[in-house]
Every structure is written in C-alpha cells, then in structure tokens.
Amino acid sequence: MSFNEFYATAYRADHQHPINLALHIIGVFAGLGVIGASLTVWPLWTIIGFPIAHVTPGLIGHRLFDRDDSIGDIRLTRTDFPLWWFLIANHLMAFRVLTLRW
Predict the structure, then answer these.
(1) CA-to-CA distance for 77 and 38, rounded, in angstroms?
(2) Is the pTM of this model over 0.90?
(3) What is the C-alpha separation between 88 and 45, in angstroms, rounded?
(4) Interatomic CA distance for residues 13 and 65, integer angstroms
(5) CA distance linking residue 46 with residue 60, whole number of Å
(6) Residue 63 in contact with residue 76, Cβ under 8 Å?
(7) How confident is the model over 36-93, as pLDDT tens digits?
(8) What is the DSSP string of 31-80?
C-alpha cells in the first residue's frame, strides 16, 4: 500500500469526529511551536518535547471521540503502517482541513 492509499483509506477512516480533527490540528501546531521555540528562545534540548506536544492532543481525541477498540487508545504501538506515515498524515490532514479540502 502506498502512502496515498493509506491516507485516503485507513487514516481518514480513523479521523471522522470534528473535535478529534481539531485536537490533531492543535497537536500539529503545538509540536511545531515546540520546535520553533527550541530553535530560538528555549534551550535546544527542549526539542525532545516535540513528540509529546504533537501526539498528546490526538491521543486524547481518539480516546474521547474516535475510539477504535481493535486498534486501542495508545496508537503509537501500531505496526500495520510505518509510524512516520502518521506524522506526515497529521500535517497533511491539518493543512487540508485548514484549507477546507478535507
């Protein structure tokens, strides 16, 4: 399966609830904010906070709004697709939602 097929089928199917989408977008901006702040005003080692800032809102969204018991709430343990695909898909989804092309 290609990334585009993954995004169009598996990823979008797991992200239907509007509040979950909003939490994912918040996570994308929080993660980018941590990277920006680490490179400019905070000590560089604080960049390790990126995964926490980026992933936590989305995990909360899945726990409360888009649950899938077959996958589980801790989606970081998924092995059916490369983990970096989820990172890219989060950013693509945020861009598409914000440009009204979801």
Answers:
(1) 27
(2) no
(3) 23
(4) 13
(5) 22
(6) no
(7) 999 999 999 999 999 999 999 999 998 899 887 766 666 666 778 898 999 999 999 9
(8) HHHHHHHHHHTS-GGGGGGHHHHHHHHHHHHHHHTS--TTT-S-GGG--S
